[in-house]
Design a protein that fits this description.
The complex is a heterodimer of chains A (247) and B (424). Chain A is an alpha/beta fold and 247 residues long. Chain A has seven helices and ten strands. The chains are: A alpha/beta (247), B alpha/beta (424).
């Protein structure tokens, strides 16, 4: 296990070299980082290893003792395109960001489509929360969230952040009915992910509260016209949220 | 010139004659209990009533009728716990509605015309809603929670009346307890499942024929102001009183109660073409059925009884898309026309030869088949197939990803390429 530090660095002035491993939701982070002039008081550099097609895009990683590398030609091409290398050496980074991993953010709204604004008793919500959290723990979609942080942790003491997928835009009409219950599920999701990741010494970075509308949506000003991806400003807020947790 | 031997009974159908319909027959061979007044077809159906109505609602829902459920269970609440929390019991979470006064007050409360003053009832360390005290398996945390849930519930019920084409109501009791303050009727006696009985606050009432009729007519009139085309299917619960607060012996009290309810239901069905009566009461409780469908307590109705009742119903009312195979078989068994009687009789003889366990297994298989048919109807299988296809498509991405790319995937790729300064 190794962690490379600048010889002169101290706790106060330390700047982090960050590797972002992600999917299309890493775009907003990349644009935000560019807008920031690639500088930040706590961040020395950010290297993006990104691949399209959702979370599954980066599943073909091969772990070696000192690095992770693309396990397929296609992933290798994407990494070359976005990072200039298809090898992620652990010694080169002080923090890893898994960008936009976890459940599909539509799932909160989908689960609330039938309930249509009903109020549920605390008794019922307690059971729902227990079952939902169990599902988050067991869910197949969560596999990468469960697998990657412990694998990275085995090889480095670097900080590991998992960024939540942005919630869907409040303008998505098909979920206009969703609300209170979807928000309840989302809150439970955040709590469960925080606990789950803490077990591997990782930190879950949830969506900034100021970007959330009606408990389960991204406010329209933070959503791109495709209603799925987030804006550069959202990316900046997420980077700031992470930076605040760097020590 | 009229035939000297002619008289009205000469023109009556076979079902009008005891000798032809009942005499010498096994209970389940007796048929032609019911003839629909109008088809239900694709109409949206809502149910309410005493506990027997739960069976009716459950089967209407499962058989593919356009059944309304305005307060469905939240996702992630285990299906086996739905009933514990009043979900799926009826079209709304009002619990059992035993009396016509309770039904009338339900619509009045839902429309804001009646606001009872009764506070939440204390139970154990929590609170329950006096108007549906058993709707939740556990007491609620505070009176405020009771009110918040009730408001949400009544909003949903108001919406239900706007959407209902056919309202199925099972009349259950004439006896009730009410608040002396404002006449609010409770489904159960205060003090039995929450609250504290206080004779100065609560009064016992046994509604008579006139009161039951007036309440039911008032309810129907109010419901039709919300949805003028609403029709009503009335039934009477064959489940006798569990207990009476009258001075009469419980069987006598039960007989009075059911007689009043049956009479009102029949009277209104005769009077209005938009009201039909379905004889679930007679099919179970008539002496010609010899009590076969009652459990050992002679009160609860056995599963076979419910199925027999519903088979008579499905003989007249088919859901949109037709009856599911398992139900069709039951219906055919149940329609004991003279030609079919021999078949039914043979089947019964054969069934008797089967051991108890084998019959249980057969019923289990039948239920399984019904569930499968219903799943298909709900489009779950189709959804499953799509899910499987998506899963396979994802799997294929491993080998040849471009071939399996969805529009969503392509959009994601483009989003990424744009951020990294490359257009695809």
């Amino acid at each position: 296990m190794s962690k490379t530090k600048s010889a002169a660095s101290t706790h106060a002035e330390k700047k982090y070299r960050i590797a972002v491993l992600g999917n299309s939701h890493a775009s907003c982070l990349k644009r935000a980082w560019d807008d920031m002039g690639n500088t930040h008081e706590r961040i020395a550099s950010i290297t993006f290893f990104a691949r399209g097609q959702g979370e599954g895009g980066v599943k073909d990683l091969i772990f070696e003792a000192d690095c992770m590398r693309a396990g397929t030609p296609e992933l290798s091409q994407w990494f070359m395109k976005t990072a200039g290398t298809d090898i992620i050496a652990f010694k080169d980074y002080d923090a890893f960001v898994l960008a936009a991993f976890g459940v599909n953010s539509e799932s909160f709204c989908k689960s609330d489509l039938k309930t249509q604004g009903q109020t549920f008793s605390k008794n019922v919500l307690d059971i729902v929360a227990r079952n939902y959290r169990r599902q988050v723990m067991d869910g197949a979609e969560e596999n990468l969230v469960k697998i990657l942080p412990p694998e990275i942790r085995k090889r480095t003491d670097a900080k590991i952040f998992v960024f939540q997928k942005p919630l869907v835009s409040e303008q998505l009409e098909k979920y206009a009915q969703a609300g209170e219950f979807a928000g309840f599920l989302y809150r439970n999701y955040v709590a469960e992910m925080t606990d789950l990741l803490a077990s591997s010494g990782s930190l879950f970075i949830s969506q900034p509260p100021e970007t959330i509308a009606r408990g389960c949506f991204t406010r329209s000003e933070y959503a791109k016209p495709d209603l799925k991806h987030a804006t550069d400003e959202y990316g900046r807020l997420m980077l700031e949220r992470m930076a605040a947790r760097l020590d | 010139m009229s035939d000297a031997n002619d008289h009205p009974y000469k023109h009556q159908p076979a079902k009008a004659f005891w000798r032809r319909m009942v005499q010498g027959k096994q209970p389940t061979e007796i048929g032609q209990w019911y003839e629909q007044k109008w088809p239900i077809g694709e109409a949206t159906v809502a149910t309410a009533g005493s506990c027997f109505a739960q069976h009716i609602g459950h089967r209407l829902r499962k058989s593919g009728f356009n059944y309304l459920d305005v307060e469905p269970a939240p996702r992630y609440l285990d299906a086996e716990r739905h009933l514990e929390f009043g979900y799926g019991m009826y079209s709304g979470r009002y619990g059992n509605v035993y009396t016509t006064r309770q039904l009338l007050q339900l619509i009045q409360r839902a429309t804001g015309e009646f606001r009872p003053s009764e506070p939440a009832w204390a139970l154990d360390k929590g609170f329950v809603d006096p108007f549906r005290p058993t709707i939740e398996a556990l007491p609620l945390e505070s009176p405020e929670e009771v009110i918040a849930l009730r408001d949400s519930h009544l909003r949903a019920v108001a919406g239900m009346f706007e959407k209902t084409d056919v309202f199925v109501f099972t009349l259950g009791l004439t006896e009730a307890w009410l608040s002396k303050k404002d006449g609010a009727v409770f489904p159960i006696c205060p003090g039995t499942q929450g609250g504290r009985f206080d004779a100065s606050q609560y009064a016992y009432v046994n509604f008579n024929h006139e009161e039951v009729r007036a309440d039911l007519e008032a309810f129907i009139a109010r419901a039709r102001t919300i949805k003028p085309s609403m029709r009503f299917l009335l039934t009477v619960s064959p489940v006798p009183l569990m207990a009476t607060a009258s001075p009469h012996q419980v069987v006598v009290a039960s007989s009075y109660s059911k007689s009043v309810l049956r009479s009102v239901a029949g009277m209104l069905a005769d009077k209005h073409d938009y009201i039909d009566y379905f004889p679930s009461y007679e099919i179970i409780s008539s002496h010609v059925m010899r009590g076969n469908f009652y459990g050992s307590d002679m009160r609860s109705v056995e599963e076979e009884g419910v199925e027999h009742v519903m088979a008579q119903f499905f003989a007249e009312h088919q859901p949109p898309g037709g009856l599911k195979p398992a139900l069709k078989a039951k219906r055919n068994d149940a329609i004991a026309t003279p030609d079919k009687q021999a078949i039914v009789s043979n089947e019964k003889t054969a069934a008797k030869k089967l051991g108890r366990e084998e019959r249980k297994e057969a019923r289990r298989q039948e239920r399984k088949e019904l569930r499968r048919a219903n799943r298909k109807l709900a489009g779950k299988e189709e959804k499953q197939a799509k899910k499987e296809a998506r899963r396979k498509a994802k799997g294929n991405q491993q080998g040849n990803k471009d071939k399996a790319k969805t529009a969503d995937d392509i959009a994601c790729d483009e989003e990424l390429l744009a951020a990294f300064g490359e257009k695809k």
